[in-house]
Amino acid sequence: MKNLPKNKNIYIYGKKIYIDYFKKGKRIRKSTGLNYSALSFAFVRNHYDLFLEENIKDLQEKYYELEQQQRNSFKQNPSIPNTFDQISQILLKEKSFLKANTNHTYSSLRKTILSFLEKHNIFYLDDFKREHSFLFLENLKEQNLKPKTITSLCFFLKNIFDYALENEALIKNPFFIPKMKQSLNLQKTHFKIFSLNEMIHLIKHSQGDLRLFLILAFFTGARTGEILALQYKDLDFQKNEIHIFKSLSVAGIIDTPKTKSSQRVIDMLELIKEELLPLKQKHSLQDFIIKSKRTSLMRQFYRLLENLNYEKRRLYDTRHSFASLMLSQGEEPMWVGCKMLGHKDLNETFRTYAKYLPKEVTHRATFLRGIKLT
């Protein structure tokens, strides 16, 4: 610790502040009993010698009085944002440069968090206690939210406290995130793919925009938003290519695709070309290929699955089905993952779809058999 004599030291262990000093040639470690925060650390530093001599409990009481004064000053000072509403609003403004879909997600997370806090009369940052963390998590689990959603909500709430600490609107962070895997019984999501026969069966029993969507989804591997954003101007029938440089968000906003590598030019397979070429003659280049909304497509898709007695699956599983089909049939992973799916590299492809790769060949370089070197 700077500006302290060499024989004196302050350090953190297990979130508690300790002092370290030598007495009669013997090193002594002593707990202050205070949880670490910027305020408590400064207090220990300013009262270091007193912690060596005076009663620890008396010093702790003195600190708690100081801490309470600081809290009151936060609440009484209108220039310092000290409510969840204020801080979360500032956070959203700072994230406004992000993609529209991401901003929509953050706004939704903020709304859910504020709803919980208002329900429990928690308005000021300082009113939130450690036990409220567990109450918050239990409340989310009772709503049967997806583990991914619960995780996002917890980390957004943590971001609120982190921001407050960085801007000195809070003394310490009371939010505690337990190990999410154990708390939510998180398991790796296993997608449910369609076989080639199922793909064809679904297409043959669908019509209109749903049929067109399934053809594109099953045989390009593009994401739902990417397909919904496609216009006829994005199709190149001379080079047999489809240009994917935009995506339609859940909020209905046209934006760039999910990642930089997602902006790509993919191959237009023959069966897609046969389907789209006649349609191009009837539409302008500015027309969207799929005119139905995402929610409408999902309803039609679920109804179709039910009518055909198929297990319910996500619309997004069409993308996984394309990847698993192509890889299992021996198509090059680089083509499937990086060109068609828009993965950054093959690691991403293998991490998700390794089990669909053809089984390893047990006998290699068979062409060398029979060659005599002597």
Please characterize this protein's 3D structure.
50% of the residues lie in helices and 10% in strands. The protein has 374 residues and is mainly alpha-helical. The longest helix is centred in the N-terminal third of the chain and has 21 residues, at 56-76. β4 and β5 form a beta hairpin. It is elongated, with a radius of gyration of 30 Å. It contains 16 helices and eight strands. The model has no long low-confidence stretch (mean pLDDT 84). The protein folds into three domains: 8-76, no CATH class; 84-184, DNA polymerase, domain 1 (Orthogonal Bundle), CATH 1.10.150.130; 196-356, hpI Integrase, Chain A, CATH 1.10.443. Residues 189-366 form the Tyr recombinase domain. InterPro entries: CB, DNA_brk_join_enz, Integrase-like_cat_sf, Integrase_catalytic, Integrase_recombinase_N, Tyrosine_recombinase_XerCD. Keywords: Coiled coil, DNA integration, DNA recombination, DNA-binding. Residues 49-76 form a coiled coil.
